[in-house]
Records
---
Amino acid sequence: MKVKTSTLIIITAVFLFVFFESGVCRMERSSMNQHRLGGIYDITDQHNNGVEIEDLARFAVQDHNKKQNSFLKFARLIKAKEQVVAGKMYHLTLEAADAAGKIKVYETKIWVKPWMNFKQVQEFKVANDPFV
């Protein structure tokens, strides 16, 4: 009995679907969630991205200084979240010191499309910090 190629393709596709959906081939759920379009996920404790994310925070402060003719100096990254869009939107909370040395907490959003070598600060504002 001869089996048509199209039938074999359909059987293989069904088998692969059942195989992956049954959990036989598991991906870690947290890494799968990070790739869902539009979802915002905390990446603060991911050490493999630490330097890259801190560089984005420094970039946001520099961009703010240029646009507002101000002199903020990056102090530290407090919190980082990532959102998958057409590229990635990083939601960062950081501390920066003004010219007088007073440290404030800021929130920024940075849109990154690495395949286009594109980085743009979408928002930079003083955070509603209960400790200030």
---
Amino acid sequence: MLSGKKTVEVLDRMEEMFPDAKGELDHESPFQYLIAVILSAQATDVSVNKVTPILFDAYPTAEKLANAQLDSVMDKIRTIGLYKNKAKNIIKTSQLLVADYDGEIPRTIEEMVKLPGVGKKTANVVAGDMFGVPAIAVDTHVERVAKRLRICKQSASVIEVEEALMKKIPKDRWIQAHHTIILFGRYHCTARSPKCEKCPLLDMCLDGQKIMKKRNE
């Protein structure tokens, strides 16, 4: 597996490719960002950004969404995956925010994961981007890149991938590293047909070297 030093080196190279990496979900407040991240589970950011302008125009705050009718919310987000459960969750989350947090989202990961539809990954993303809480959220892109580069074991669970990244990447780089690795996985080290032939990490990527060998046979 890659050492901590080598992991930082590959991260540096990724940052040269994506120097301004950041989240791609549209929002105008921490509350809207939380809702957008909940909606993005098993859906693309592009698909979420298509529905949130209509959703947030009707329900821009926790107070508004807490009082929304389920059918109305479902109708506005029905083009994204799992829209029925997500509609229920974002309404319930909004109701809890109004009841327990004066309509604002809590600032700690521990409190966020208590909200309906908010798992560790969602909490890590929101806490990091909105409040600067050091965290690395492991989505499919982050997991794929970490395993291809042998930053962690191939059999590693999501939690184990997260732990390996946090161990090998300096804490003050966790938030930015999360976004950098996501964009690297989303646009370069893709699940199908990764761009190995022009990858600056190929010399440290056993998977990439195997892929290139097969392509050249």
